[in-house]
UniProtKB/TrEMBL annotation:
This is Orn/Lys/Arg decarboxylases family 1 pyridoxal-P attachment site domain-containing protein. Pfam families: OKR_DC_1. Residues 75-349 form the Orn/Lys/Arg decarboxylases family 1 pyridoxal-P attachment site domain. InterPro entries: Orn/Lys/Arg_deCO2ase_major_dom (IPR000310), Orn_Lys_Arg_decarboxylase-I (IPR052357), PyrdxlP-dep_Trfase (IPR015424), PyrdxlP-dep_Trfase_major (IPR015421). Keywords: Pyridoxal phosphate. SUPFAM superfamilies: PLP-dependent transferases. The keyword Cell cycle does not apply. Its cofactor is pyridoxal 5'-phosphate. The keyword Acyltransferase does not apply. Residues 506-526 are annotated as: Disordered. It comes from the Bacteria.
C-alpha cells in the first residue's frame, strides 16, 4: 500500500474545536489556537490524503463508489443515506423494539434474513457483521461436540482451521503443490467412503470452494460424489468469493446451495459468503446459510449468540439487505456487462507484446475451474512490487497470488478502470522503479525450519492465510522454496501453535521435532 512520509503530509483539520481555558498566558493561548486546527491521527490523515487522489481503480472487491455509480437511482438513494447524512442515526446500538433483536429477530431483520434465504435457496440465512472468519467459526461451533472429527480441506483458509481446533482435524488428501495445494477429490471420496463403511464416519467435512486466485471447485461434480460417499457427514462450505453467482442464471445451478438442495441430504450443509467481495455490501458483511432441520437452524442461532459480537453494526446489516435486493434486480445484467469488459480487457492485453505474455490460461480439470469474472496475469517474482507500484503511481488496486496479479472484474469495474490498468501495465517495460522500501516487520523473515523436521505448528503466509505447513507435517525442500518465495513477496509469516497462542516467527524460535502424523494418508492407504 502507499506509505506516506508522515512528516511531510498535511494534517487533517479538526471537526470540532475545544474551548480554551481562561487564564493561559497569551503565548500559550496563541500556540494552542495554532495547533487546534490539526488532528494528530495518523491513520485518519493517511486515508484522507489517499482518497484525495480521486477514484481508486479497484480490481479486488466491490468499492462503494462503484455501487453508487452502478445502482439505479432508487438504490443509490438508499446507499447514500446509509453512508451519508443518515449514518450517524443508523449506526447506533439498536435492539429489541427499536428495530429488532439481532439474535432472536421477529421484525424487519427477520424479514430481511428470510428474503435472503429464499433468494439463495437456503432454509435459513443469518446476517453477520464480523466478517466471514466469524461466520466460519459460528458454522463449525454449531456442529461441534466432544470427540467430533473434521475432515478439513487441505487448502482451507486459516479461519476454518482455527475454528476447528477444539475438534480432531484430519486434512483431506492433497493434490497440487506445497505453494498451490488443492483437494484430491477422488481420494477424499474414497477416504470418506472407507470411514463410513467401517462405522466411524467423519462428523464434518469442510470445503473451501473458492480461492484467492479465482480457482473454484466444480461443486456440481464434487458434492454429489462426496455426499454419496458419506451421507451422514455434515458439510461446511466456504464460498467467500462467489456470493453473486447465485444471481447469475449460467452460474446459479453450480453454487453450493443449489447443488446441495438437489441431493438426498441426511446431514446439514452450511455455506458462508463474504458478501462485500462480490455484492453491494459493506466490508465485514457476511451471510451464513443453512440447509437442514429446525434443530440444525437452532444450533446455528445459538452458536451465533455465543460467538458474534453483541454490538452488531446496523449499517452493515442494512447493506446486506440492500445487497440482496440489488443482486436480485441487477445481478444478471451486471454479470453480462462484466464479462464484456473482461473480453475487452483480454483483447487490449493481447494487442501489446509485453502484456500479451502476461495472460495466464484458465483451463480447469475434472473438479476445478476458474471464476469467469477473474483474470490472472503472470508478472514474475516481483509481483508484490508491481502491485504496489500500480497503486502508488496509477491508483490501480489488484491483488497477488504467487507470481500472478489477480484482476477481479466485479460489477463496479468500468471502461475507465480498464484504461488505467492498461496504462500502468504498458509502462512496466520502461521499468517501475526500485523495489518497495516497505520493510517487513522485525523478526518475521529470519527463521528457517530444518528440512526433515516435523512441525507441531502452523506456518502461515498472510495474505492469503492458507498454511504452508500444519502441525505434524514434514518440512521439505519444497516447503523451504515456497517460504522463500513468500518472503520475497513481502508476506507476513505467522507461526501458531495448534490450539495455543498466536505469534509471529522470530529467529530464536526452533521448530518442534516429533513423529510425522498424517492421519488422512494412513487411512487412505490402509
Amino acid at each position: 500500500m502507499i506509505e506516506p512520509n508522515w512528516k511531510s503530509q498535511p494534517a487533517m483539520p479538526l471537526l470540532h474545536r475545544s474551548c480554551s481555558t481562561p487564564g493561559l498566558r497569551r503565548s500559550k493561548r496563541g500556540m494552542q489556537s495554532m495547533h487546534s486546527h490539526y488532528l494528530d491521527a495518523p491513520l485518519a490523515t493517511h486515508l484522507t490524503n489517499f482518497t484525495r487522489s480521486g477514484r481508486c481503480h479497484n480490481f479486488h472487491a466491490v468499492p462503494w463508489p462503484a455501487v453508487l455509480d452502478a445502482a439505479s437511482s432508487e438504490f443509490a438513494q438508499h446507499y447514500r443515506a446509509l453512508l451519508g447524512a443518515d449514518l450517524s442515526r443508523i449506526d447506533a446500538s439498536w435492539s429489541g423494539s427499536a428495530v429488532d433483536s439481532f439474535f432472536t429477530p421477529h421484525g424487519p431483520l427477520a424479514d430481511a434474513q428470510q428474503k435472503t434465504a429464499a433468494a439463495f435457496g437456503a432454509d435459513a440465512t443469518f446476517f453477520g457483521t464480523s466478517g466471514t472468519s466469524a461466520s466460519n467459526q459460528i458454522a463449525l461451533e454449531s456442529l461441534r461436540f466432544p470427540g467430533a472429527e473434521v475432515l478439513m480441506d487441505c487448502a482451507a483458509h486459516q479461519s476454518l482451521l482455527f475454528a476447528a481446533e477444539a475438534m480432531t482435524v484430519v486434512p483431506t488428501p492433497c493434490a497440487g503443490s506445497v505453494e498451490n495445494p488443492r483437494v484430491d477429490v477422488e481420494a477424499t471420496a474414497r477416504l470418506l467412503a472407507r470411514r463410513a463403511a467401517e462405522g466411524r464416519p467423519f462428523d464434518i467435512l469442510v470445503l473451501s470452494a473458492t480461492g484467492y486466485d479465482g480457482r473454484k471447485l466444480r461443486l456440481d461434480r464434487v458434492l454429489p460424489l462426496l455426499v454419496t460417499s458419506s451421507p451422514t457427514t455434515a458439510i461446511v462450505i466456504d464460498e467467500a468469493w462467489s456470493a453473486m453467482h447465485a444471481f447469475v442464471p449460467s452460474l446459479a445451478d453450480k453454487t453450493a446451495l443449489a447443488v446441495a438442495s438437489s441431493l438426498p441430504l441426511r446431514a446439514p450443509v452450511l455455506v458462508t459468503h463474504s458478501a462485500h467481495k462480490t455484492m453491494a455490501a459493506l466490508r465485514q458483511g457476511s451471510y451464513l446459510h443453512v440447509l437442514g432441520s429446525a434443530s440444525d437452524i437452532e444450533r446455528v442461532r445459538l452458536a451465533r449468540y455465543r460467538i458474534h459480537t453483541t454490538s452488531p453494526s446496523w449499517p452493515i446489516l442494512t447493506s446486506l439487505d440492500l445487497a440482496r435486493a440489488h443482486a436480485a434486480q441487477f445481478g444478471a445484467r451486471e454479470f453480462s456487462r462484466t464479462i464484456s469488459l473482461k473480453v475487452k480487457l483480454e483483447s487490449m492485453l493481447r494487442a501489446e507484446p509485453l502484456t500479451a505474455r502476461m495472460l495466464v490460461s484458465s483451463t480447469g480439470d475434472a473438479y476445478y475451474d476458474f471464476d469467469p469474472m477473474v483474470l490472472r496475469l503472470h508478472v514474475g517474482s516481483r509481483s508484490r512490487d508491481i502491485r504496489d507500484w500500480l497503486l502508488r503511481e496509477h491508483h490501480v488496486l489488484v491483488t497477488i497470488a504467487g507470481d500472478q496479479l489477480v484482476v477481479r472484474l466485479h460489477f463496479g469495474v468500468t471502461d475507465h478502470d480498464l484504461q488505467a490498468l492498461m496504462k500502468g501495465l504498458s509502462l512496466l517495460e520502461s521499468g517501475f522503479g526500485s523495489q518497495s522500501n516497505i520493510l517487513p516487520p522485525t523478526g518475521l523473515q529470519d527463521f528457517e525450519p530444518s528440512i526433515g523436521s516435523c512441525s507441531r505448528e502452523y506456518i502461515i503466509p498472510y495474505p492469503p492465510g492458507v498454511p504452508l505447513a500444519r502441525p505434524g507435517e514434514l518440512w521439505t525442500e519444497r516447503h523451504a522454496m515456497a517460504l522463500a518465495q513468500e518472503r520475497a513477496r513481502g508476506a507476513e509469516i505467522y507461526r501458531l501453535a495448534a490450539g495455543g497462542s498466536t505469534r509471529r516467527a522470530t529467529s530464536s524460535d526452533e521448530i518442534s521435532v516429533g513423529a510425522v502424523l498424517n492421519p488422512s494418508a494412513e487411512d487412505e492407504h490402509a
